[in-house]
């Protein structure tokens, strides 16, 4: 009984803390919430002009080693469903000779226990879950991401002094 | 039977008794124009998209799939209709294809693809017929609009230019070898070359 009281006291404390944080969350100024909408909620804004997809076939550098490479070409109308994976008609191992496209990495043939499968692993089948084409567009929100190479370089230079 | 044929031959062989030569030649000419014109008009009527999608099998399946592709809607508003790709434009080939299409009338009457499930089960077979036809005529229906001679490789993406200036230029490949499923959804492609 004593422990029960203790637990309830704790939960009351936890609940009140939660309430306080949600109060602070609600106090974020309105002009900082609808940054992507840029129009009152009851007004249908004019959509921005559609951008053309980059189609230059030149590899984009990855921003960090584990980044899924972005697609440097158009994929309009490429069928990607249970029947067909159009991407694999160039990027599968046995197609790269003809297509000269980069082969999907071997990790795509591994299941979650690291066993190699003969076919593309079902969890890696839908390419566009991770790989996407690019637009030459301005960032919608500010991004202060710093490449780790820059961090390492800055660090070594700091240590020198 | 033989007697009947002989009688018909005698009638045809004898000069006309009641009608003048002028009436018969001119009348024959006019009747010919009417019949020929009528035949071609009927033929053209069956060569329209409205005719093709008059059947729900075509309207609910393949026509819906076409609508999101570049052959249906695009920046310049030029579009391909069903017969542009599926019926040869040359007259003799067109007649040959129209005769083959009697099989499709059979299919319509007996409902071989009258549900979505039946159509999906037949999709691979139907697609293979079209691939075989386009492979055999060197993708003639593509080339009716997309003329290789006037392709400007510098206006194509590097990838497309590379493929078109090698395999297509040498005649080793034809359009349909790579451009399958550009206007309709693909069936299960297991075992198809290039997939």
UniProtKB/TrEMBL annotation, chain A:
Recorded superkingdom: Bacteria
Q: Which N-terminal stretch is annotated as signal sequence?
A: 1-25
**Where is this protein localized, as stated in its record?**
Periplasm
* Membrane found in the keyword field: no
Kindly name one Pfam family recorded for this protein: NapB
Gene3D superfamilies associated with the record: Flavocytochrome C3, Chain A
List keywords of the entry alphabetically: Electron transport, Heme, Iron, Metal-binding, Periplasm, Signal, Transport
InterPro entries given in the database record:
Multihaem_cyt_sf, NapB
| Keyword Glycosyltransferase tagged | no
Describe its assembly.
Answer: Component of the periplasmic nitrate reductase NapAB complex composed of NapA and NapB.
Q: What does this protein do?
A: Electron transfer subunit of the periplasmic nitrate reductase complex NapAB.
Q: What protein family is recorded? A: Belongs to the NapB family.
Q: What is this protein called?
A: Periplasmic nitrate reductase, electron transfer subunit
UniProtKB/TrEMBL annotation, chain B:
Q: Which Pfam families match?
A: Cytochrom_NNT
Q: Where does heme 2 bind?
A: 85-86, 184
User: Which segments constitute the NapC/NirT cytochrome c N-terminal domain?
Assistant: 15-189
- Post-translational modification note: Binds 4 heme groups per subunit.
The protein's topology relative to the membrane is:
Single-pass membrane protein
One GO MF term attached to the UniProt entry:
heme binding
Family membership: Belongs to the NapC/NirT/NrfH family.
Protein name per UniProt: Cytochrome c-type protein
